[in-house]
Amino acid sequence: MFYILCSFLSGLLKGFEVIVDQWPEWTCILLRPESDEAVPSYFRHYYICHTRSVKAFRFFIQRPCVVNWTKPTVFTGVPYDTVPTLQEQSRKHGGQMSSLENRFMYAWTKKELPEQPPLPEGLTLTTLEPKHAAALCERWKNYRPDPALDLYMQVITQRFDSSAIVNEDGDLVAYIGMQFNGAMAMLHVDPQYRGRNLGQIVLADLTRKLLAKGKTAYGLIPTKDTSFIATSSQKLGFTWVPQGSMSWVRFVPKSAFKPMPNYSMTVASKAGAEVNKIDSDGPQQQKSSDEQMVQEQLHLTALPLSCNECSDISSEIPTISCSHMKVGIC
């Protein structure tokens, strides 16, 4: 939540508003779009919330002015122990939790910087730029199709730190970027360049950049990516932060079930596959923007640090171990 608020205060989350349960000693804080039109489509119906108390969150989320339960809603990066409360509220409002994805937080907690591996000959270490947006979209488009995905990639490559490797022709062959929540994400190495340690090179480079600026270097890894979890925590030197575990939850209101009589859910654990998708084998109809949002995959703002296959980091584990924030109280 710290880096989300930093993005908000710096103007990167235009169209959002912040509400708290009480002021100035707040316990629950939530960012939400001022309206559907005020934010890009990739942030529409998104709620970003944090709480210091599950009990306080239970009362906060029930207030009629906090969440619009008549719309499809995505709760991004909520503390894992608040999920039962969201599920309870979903049932109370006649809707369903259509998808749930849990993430572990892994962070660099050592005082020393990670060692920077050498770069193979013929390759150049650089950074991501807006011109790379098309290549990033091609890689991540199946994780969540969105008409504004290209715009999202342009924004994050322009505004946030990154690390990338290009070949002699200037082609992007490996990279890692960041997201609005301050997490490192999208670690990827092209298949033909794997086995050359490029994943570790860009991960170490971005980690060093963040630490040099006094920031926390961390990533959110899907709990099912077991081999990457093992390598990131033990081989690369990252540490699991239990209190940083988060969940991404999608709520579907009762009204959204009407055009989709056969409700089903599919789950996959890696990028490039369908993730927790609502489906229907009923007749195809022209859908409203809300209905289309129900069938979209999750989550653009939840792109993982990496997945097992595309990080190019071996699964073998070594034996040695300030602007003024306008706040509304509802």
TrEMBL record:
Residues 1-15 form the signal peptide. This is Glycine N-acyltransferase-like protein. It holds the Pfam family Gly_acyl_tr_N. Gene3D superfamilies: 3.40.630.30. Its EC number is 2.3.1.-. InterPro entries: Acyl_CoA_acyltransferase (IPR016181), Glycine_N-acyltransferase (IPR010313), Glycine_N-acyltransferase_N (IPR015938), GNAT_dom (IPR000182). It comes from Pomacea canaliculata (Golden apple snail). GO terms for molecular function: glycine N-acyltransferase activity. Belongs to the glycine N-acyltransferase family. The keyword Acyltransferase applies. The keyword Flavoprotein does not apply. Keywords: Acyltransferase, Signal, Transferase. It comes from the Eukaryota. Residues 123-261 form the N-acetyltransferase domain. GO terms for cellular component: mitochondrion.
